[in-house]
Amino acid sequence: MNPATSEQPATDTVDLSVQVGPLHLSNPLMTASGTAGLGLEMEPFFDLAEAGAIVVKTLTKAPRHGNPMPRLVETPSGLLNSIGLPNKGIDHFIEQVLPRLAGHASCLVINIAGTCTGEFGELASKLDGLPGVDGLELNISCPNVEGGDLPFGRDPDVVHRLVGDVRSATALPIITKLTPNVSDIAAVAKAAEDGGSDAVSLINTLLGMAVDWRTGRPGLGTVVGGLSGPAIKPVALRMVWEVSRSVAIPVVGIGGITSADDVLEFLCAGATAVQVGTTHYRTPDAIPRLAAELSRLLAEEGRTSARDVIGSMRTG
Amino acid sequence: MAGWNRGGVGAMAVGAAGANDRIRAVMNATAADSRTCVSRIAHVVANTPVSGGCHCIEARVEGEWPGARAGQFAMLSLDRPDFPLLPRPFSLLGSREVDGGHHVEFLIMPIGKGSGMLCALGVGEPLNVVGPLGGAMEQDLPAGPTVCVAGGYGVAPFVFLLEQWGREGESRAGSTTAVFGARTAERLSLGERLTAAAGATELCTDDGSIGFTGRVDAALAQVLSAHAERGEPVGMVLTCGPEAMMEAVGKVCRAADVPCRASLETYMGCGYAVCNGCAVAVGDPSKPEGYTYELACREGTVFDEERLWWKLL
To answer: Which of A257, B90, B134, B300 has the most CB within a 10 Å radius?
Structure first.
């Protein structure tokens, strides 16, 4: 609170809007893919238009049943998951879900994953020009599909080619979602930028596992899964900072955000927007709550725009 | 409710029209992706320790709360830094209007950190409630008496069901037999409320400290044959409790050719079908690889027992 005045800060004068490449977001809060279903599941809890963007759960060309149980293990301040991208396939989404979803979100981003590099372009061209679709997020980094990590996200050359394929298949804005399970995430981000990506989002989950030594059984049905939640926030912040210094395109920060302070930390470290994930499980209306809290925090500090915080971290 | 699958049971639905009309009024509103679940703060109005180490937590919901039916559940959490990351799912033990507002009730066994913190709540303290979630267990019940088979704190939805029927003057309450088992008499939490609400009650204990000495599946077999001998065959068995118990109950039902629905308790991340963590293998268990996954929170938690692949749960 500004000590010079005892009046309530004017939260309605704070501008939360941000620009993620060609995408104009009314606030920097996006849903993280896989934590908000296909968007419709959130409608009992908030108006989808209140989110900067809704990012749907990953869609694939063919339907997928997902992985065997157990699929979740709670860890200290974190959640291990191995869900396996269950979905009814892109065609089902386009025919049955999109007509009900189009127009509900202020910005709708469709997350897609191919089982080979060529499939990404095929999925992208199916979505190109469809009413209600504002952008694509490429899941080149899911740790929970056959063979462990999707191989695409680790090799800069493959990422460059894959993003280039998608770029030539669609005019839609492209966000490439990066895996933290690499030694040099900035190099992969640069490859995505050079391939034509309009933004990068990071981080996807960190590979992890849990085991019960008494029973001798792993916690997850697939043994290894992806860790999310507050436990990974420091890793995510570090990677957002590294990537934002290496690329000119906007960075969308993901990893353990539960409060408006977390959001502003990511912005300060270089993110233009953020995605809110695991916290949805406990707080389905996290996005409108965080938006209100963001305005309040910024007003308290006398800031008039969330954009002023982006990349404001000083070193040395 | 979206994906509610009754297998062959729906076709047998000929009775209980009164109850079904009421349920449809609630469940229609919950159809496909427009479910009436809400996220609310509630304040504890009573925290009553009951036998078996469980607590009955009754809380008044702030703001609107949709009507709930027995078998539905809610996700509970506390806004405290030391509360676990994920909310915890609990069956609704009650959901009713009180003084122009709504009270919800839960039976909670303090088995871990989250449930322990919930059981320690004092009157007036807040908790987060997301619900009501999942489907009702009484939808399209066939004609004939119902038998409810509960194990341990799996008794909660049946106390809700029978008390709700009683309040609504539903005649089924009087013809329903409750079979309730636990290791000892002390662990039959809410046994008195169940007995008061059911037409007949068969208590079972492993140690014989009260009622039938033995497991609920053995007691159920006797109840089913007694009904058959009287010419009043049981129309439906509903069960909630430990998985091994429900599987054994399912076996008895299949042998007696009585349909059975089981309310599953699974690991859950969200309760409202976005985390996909509560997958249940369902399908025709006689066909190899004949299963697919449904979500306990959305298609359940109540499933036709004959569709469940117990060994994959």
So the answer is: B134
